[in-house]
Amino acid sequence: TSHRYQTGLFVLIDQLLPGRSSAGRVEIIRLMPASTDGELHYRVRGSDKVERAVGESRLSFLGSD
Questions:
Q1: Going residue by residue through the chain (65 aa), what tens digit of pLDDT does each one get?
Q2: Could you give the 3-state DSSP secondary structure of residue 48?
Q3: Which among 34, 46, 49, 63 counts the fewest CB atoms within 10 Å?
Q4: 61 burial class (0-12, 13-18, 19+ CB within 10 angstroms)?
Q5: What angle do CA 48, 11, 25 make, to 5 degrees?
Q6: In terms of Cα–Cα distance, which of 37, 35, 41, 38 is closest to 55?
Q7: How far is the C-alpha of 48 from the C-alpha of 40, rounded, in Å?
Q8: At 58, is the secondary structure helix, strand, or coil?
Q9: Residues 40-49: contacts with CB within 8 Å, 24+ apart?
Q10: What is the rounded distance in angstroms from the CA atom of residue 18 to the CA atom of residue 21?
Q11: CA 32 to chain centroid
């Protein structure tokens, strides 16, 4: 299984993340390995400049800048 999104892309987080008041646009910073349940993960950074790990199921395509 390969990652759906690549580094440098901007995607939307469809669900709230801890410490965020709303879902929103983030940049894919790094591809991470799958978790024990097989879901692929990403390191993302939002406009607040905080990096977070997010599972692929929480992301949707936005496009690139």
A1: 699 999 999 999 876 656 655 568 899 999 999 999 999 999 999 888 889 899 999 999 874 44
A2: coil
A3: 49
A4: exposed
A5: 30
A6: 41
A7: 23
A8: helix
A9: 40/1, 40/3, 40/4, 42/3, 42/5, 44/11, 44/13, 46/13, 46/20, 48/20
A10: 8
A11: 10
Q: In the chain, what is the greatest distance between 2 CA atoms, to the nearest angstrom?
A: 33
Q: Which residues of 12-48 are buried (b: 16+ CB within 10 A; e: fewer)?
A: ebeeebeeeeeeeebbbeeebeeeeeeebbbbbebee
Query: Which three-class secondary structure state does DSSP give residue 26?
Result: strand
Task: Take residue 31 and report the two structure tokens written for it.
Answer: 């591809």
Rounded-to-integer distance, Cα 4 and Cα 18, Å: 23
- Give the type of residue at 18: P
